[in-house]
Design the sequence.
């Protein structure tokens, strides 16, 4: 995108629908993917929707249909409302934290400093471990008796803290753990973005007398926009679908206070024998995230065109 | 003066981040080297000499090496398929923006959002009827369908940023669509392919929510479900789980170290056209 | 770039070949019957080790049968439900307390097997249906009370045999708390613990006429309020562990073994886990004080294994179950579990719990109640019991509100 000009974009837009891509048979290229999706995603999804109209218990051969009953129940279920709020906190909280941390790390590690590659590798390291396993390791640190953090607190003269006993702090800890584990991905995306900015731009602006801050806001930030878009979309999806870390750290408790929609689906499906209700939650979550991402994408695309 | 201060602040911040990222691994290491009866602080290494039984358990009872092989196979094959299919699928969606294609594109992007648990039971039944439970291909199909939407999204975004003139020139020179695609477009996709590989391979390597159901037999089980057999609520063995986690990190860390330069370079190369 | 795609194509081909191989492998080559046994046991569970040795012995005399013992992950119950829903049912599986209520439609009745005459009659209320059929081989008979650390109680001068009412229990808890011990440890995350508290108390707090009402579909608000009132009084007095909302089984058993915790409301299996941390810890259990009348023990199905009635290798699976039912083998299994054998002709070593067994179980003076939720509540209530109890323990919700939630879920699930 960097090399293009407004004029080029305009021609591109104009020509996009023209030859040689007018031939409909080019669409054959996406046929295999569509078939795969129809079989292994759309069909189960439709099936899930049908389940959401029933009161199936999740394993027995019999079920009866109750229309939109599960959806009405969702609308009036305070547990679900609270869970939706948590889900947004996980999604947006992690996204914000990861952008701040990821961009800072990328800026710091883009410079020629000693040990740069080692530092990059270490920061990326937790990404390479499954969240279930990583969560278990973090839990060891947060646990009350014998927990690593409490050992430090006690050594400093404090008394032990039950880190995961309050809803608010637990939600914050979950956001933190998820962000810290996956900050490596944002870092790598931003690093690539930074390195794609031609150094000539900086050299030229330096000749024009721009200071470091001006360079950052006027060259770095605008040119990182594609990296930003990719990173935000990825983190948002990851945060909104968050499951493993919650399961390992709090199991959704105390009470229902730290559930995300994904963990609540698991509970309703497998523990509460309410598979129909769980399916309804899945459908609602799917719609919410899909709409959010589409809005985000549209806004970002528009801004990208305007920005150029 | 302020510049030097700033540099120190940055170095300190980096140091803190590095320590934060290493702490869980350090704790895993001390845990893995202690028997269950050693109740000393997590910060301390065992005083009574090295205790390697946890590593032995992870390898002989937990079959962690086998699991690493399974994960590697499933990750490599699925990622390759995802790159190929992702590029093929994205091309018409990026270049032929009819209303129909825009709808198809939005639908595919929407699929990124499906919570795994909400399709689990129907998907499992289907795979079971096809004989795909406990097989590599069953797992690969699942990985491909769950990760492909993201790769289509990334490829399409990248293709739109490529100047169309080159493809038009190729067509004018008499190249068929297939030739244009394979000889002109694909070679330009190297950077975004690096991004797709790095993102999808990590997700597949770590996948748990679906594979724990579909890969049940120790012969085909991947890493995350394997380690979770040590942390089931009754009879858990955290020492062995920690040992298994550490063992499984080694190969992928080596791969990352080898590929790190290539990946960042690959991601960069594209934007410099 | 071309080479990259070539590599991709090659890898795909390799993948297809490999999957082809594996598909052939599972197809049952060589004529041997391959049985899948979902053990419901973690990889390093000592019971699994015992079972493995036993199975090897069986296979050495039955060359045409091979049995795959599958260790569980932490999604065992969910996994079983998915498989029942998809008709992909293992040949043999651990029924973890649900052989009758959840699994009996899918299991082969075993009451005609030769060993059935030795079926421990104490298990009948939990495992037998009205026509006298039972569906799993019971390796042990689950008998549970309140698990406690003997040394901690002795140091505080408390004799568990004297704790016959909840007032006695609360007085003891207060004494322990002053002594710096956590009186009761439980967990809302490892949900057994929170659920058991309600389940254990409910058997005695809900009276006879209320119990009859529950079976007919009338929720016993009065009795259930008593349960949660008691829990709340303990919460207000600070008798619960600080890490209630996040503790794992390991955290709780370690705390019990180290003498930091006095009581845990849970089945005896935790004792093995506690001894893993402190091998010479002195642990026992005692009958649950009652709100109306005599203290009681609860119990029923413990570790039990059933055979799928649709298994392709049903005969071999039954033969294997018969083998496990031999007194010698069953005794070994029960010893590994640390429980009372599920068949009367087997003997087991109860280890550290022998004394509690001699004192409270063997004389038969304390009634053995079945688990409250299995008999009086509809299938699927467990999670609500767990969440409401942990809501009260953490002070997140009040008693009236929680009882309301349980009642509502009861209404939804009853007769489903």
Sequence:
């Amino acid at each position: 995108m960097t090399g293009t000009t407004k004029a080029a974009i305009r021609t591109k837009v104009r020509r996009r629908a023209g030859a040689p891509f007018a031939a409909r048979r080019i669409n054959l290229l996406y046929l295999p993917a569509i078939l795969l999706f129809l079989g292994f995603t759309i069909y189960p999804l439709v099936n899930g929707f049908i389940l959401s109209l029933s009161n199936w218990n999740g394993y027995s051969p019999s079920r009866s249909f109750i229309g939109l009953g599960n959806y009405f129940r969702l609308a009036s279920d305070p547990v679900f409302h609270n869970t939706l709020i948590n889900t947004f906190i996980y999604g947006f909280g992690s996204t914000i934290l990861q952008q701040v941390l990821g961009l800072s790390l990328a800026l710091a590690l883009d410079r020629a400093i000693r040990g740069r590659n080692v530092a990059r590798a270490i920061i990326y390291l937790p990404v390479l471990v499954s969240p279930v396993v990583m969560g278990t390791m973090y839990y060891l640190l947060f646990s009350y008796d014998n927990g690593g953090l409490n050992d430090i607190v006690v050594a400093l003269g404090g008394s032990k803290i039950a880190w995961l006993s309050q809803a608010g702090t637990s939600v914050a800890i979950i956001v933190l753990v998820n962000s810290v584990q996956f900050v490596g991905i944002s870092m790598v995306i931003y690093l690539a973005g930074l390195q794609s900015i031609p150094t000539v731009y900086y050299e030229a602006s330096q000749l024009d007398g721009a200071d470091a801050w001006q360079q950052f806001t006027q060259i770095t930030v605008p040119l990182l926009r594609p990296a930003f878009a990719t990173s935000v979309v990825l983190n948002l999806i990851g945060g909104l679908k968050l499951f493993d870390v919650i399961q390992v750290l709090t199991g959704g408790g105390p009470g229902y206070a730290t559930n995300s929609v994904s963990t609540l689906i698991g509970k309703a499906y497998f523990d509460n024998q309410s598979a129909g209700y769980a399916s309804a939650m899945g459908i609602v979550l799917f719609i919410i995230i899909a709409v959010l991402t589409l809005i985000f994408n549209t806004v970002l695309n528009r801004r990208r065109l305007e920005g150029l | 003066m302020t510049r030097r201060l700033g540099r120190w602040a940055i170095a300190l911040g980096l140091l803190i981040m590095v320590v934060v990222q290493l702490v869980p691994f350090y704790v895993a290491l001390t845990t893995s080297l202690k028997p269950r009866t050693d109740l000393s602080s997590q910060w301390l290494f065992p005083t009574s000499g090295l205790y390697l039984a946890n590593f032995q358990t992870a390898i002989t009872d937990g079959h962690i090496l086998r699991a690493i092989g399974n994960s590697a196979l499933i990750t490599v094959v699925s990622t390759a398929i995802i790159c190929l299919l992702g590029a093929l699928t994205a091309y018409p969606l990026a270049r032929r923006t009819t209303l129909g294609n825009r709808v198809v594109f939005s639908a595919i992007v929407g699929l990124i959002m499906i919570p795994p648990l909400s399709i689990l039971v129907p998907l499992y039944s289907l795979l079971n009827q096809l004989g795909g439970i406990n097989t590599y291909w069953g797992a690969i199909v699942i990985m491909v369908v769950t990760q492909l939407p993201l790769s289509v999204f990334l490829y399409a975004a990248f293709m739109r940023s490529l100047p169309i003139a080159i493809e038009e020139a190729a067509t004018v020179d008499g190249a068929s669509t297939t030739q244009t695609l394979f000889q002109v477009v694909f070679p330009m996709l190297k950077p975004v392919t690096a991004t797709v590989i790095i993102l999808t391979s990590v997700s597949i390597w770590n996948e748990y929510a679906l594979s724990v159901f579909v890969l049940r037999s120790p012969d085909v089980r991947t890493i995350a479900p394997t380690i979770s057999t040590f942390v089931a609520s009754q009879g858990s063995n955290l020492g062995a789980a920690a040992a298994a986690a550490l063992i499984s990190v080694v190969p992928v860390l080596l791969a990352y170290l080898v590929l790190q330069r290539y990946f960042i370079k690959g991601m960069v190369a594209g934007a410099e056209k | 770039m071309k080479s990259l795609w070539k590599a991709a194509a090659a890898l795909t081909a390799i993948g297809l070949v490999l999957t082809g191989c594996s598909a052939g492998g599972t197809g049952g080559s060589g004529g041997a019957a391959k049985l899948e046994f979902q053990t419901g046991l973690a990889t390093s569970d000592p019971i699994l080790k015992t079972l493995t040795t036993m199975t090897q012995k069986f296979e050495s005399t039955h060359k045409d049968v091979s049995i795959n013992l599958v260790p569980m992950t932490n999604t065992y119950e969910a996994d079983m439900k998915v498989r029942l829903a998809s008709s992909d049912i293992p040949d043999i599986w651990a029924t973890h307390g649900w052989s009758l209520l959840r699994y009996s439609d899918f299991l082969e009745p075993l009451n005609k097997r030769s060993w059935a005459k030795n079926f421990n009659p104490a298990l009948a209320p939990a495992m037998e249906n009205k026509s006298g059929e039972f569906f799993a081989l019971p390796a042990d008979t689950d008998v549970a009370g309140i698990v406690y650390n003997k040394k901690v109680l002795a140091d505080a001068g408390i004799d568990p045999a004297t704790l016959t009412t909840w007032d006695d229990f609360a007085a003891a808890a207060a004494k322990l708390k002053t002594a710096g011990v956590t009186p009761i440890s439980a967990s809302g995350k490892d949900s057994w613990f929170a659920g058991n508290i309600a389940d254990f108390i409910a058997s005695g707090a809900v009276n006879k006429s209320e119990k009859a009402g529950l079976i007919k579909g009338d929720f016993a608000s009065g009795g259930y309020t008593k349960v949660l009132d008691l829990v709340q009084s303990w919460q207000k007095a600070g008798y619960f562990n600080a890490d209630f909302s996040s503790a794992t089984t390991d955290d709780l058993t370690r705390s019990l073994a180290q003498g930091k915790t006095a009581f845990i409301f849970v089945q005896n299996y935790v004792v093995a886990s506690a001894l893993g941390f402190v091998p010479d810890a002195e642990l026992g259990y005692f009958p649950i004080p009652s709100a109306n009348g005599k203290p009681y023990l609860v119990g029923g199905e413990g570790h039990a294994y059933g055979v799928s009635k649709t298994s392709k290798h049903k005969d071999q699976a039954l033969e294997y179950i018969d083998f496990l039912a031999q007194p010698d083998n069953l005794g070994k299994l029960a010893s590994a579990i640390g429980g009372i054998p599920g068949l009367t002709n087997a003997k087991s070593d109860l280890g550290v719990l022998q004394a509690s067994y001699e004192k409270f179980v063997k004389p038969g003076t304390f009634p053995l109640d079945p688990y409250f939720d299995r008999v009086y509540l509809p299938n699927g209530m467990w999670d609500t019991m767990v969440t409401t109890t942990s809501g009260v323990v953490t002070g997140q919700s009040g008693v009236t509100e929680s009882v309301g939630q349980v009642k509502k879920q009861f209404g939804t699930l009853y007769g489903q």
In short: The domain at 64-230+247-271 of chain B is CATH 1.10.3720.10 (MetI-like fold). Residues 238-271 of chain B form the longest helix (34 residues). The two ends of chain B are 39 Å apart (CA to CA).
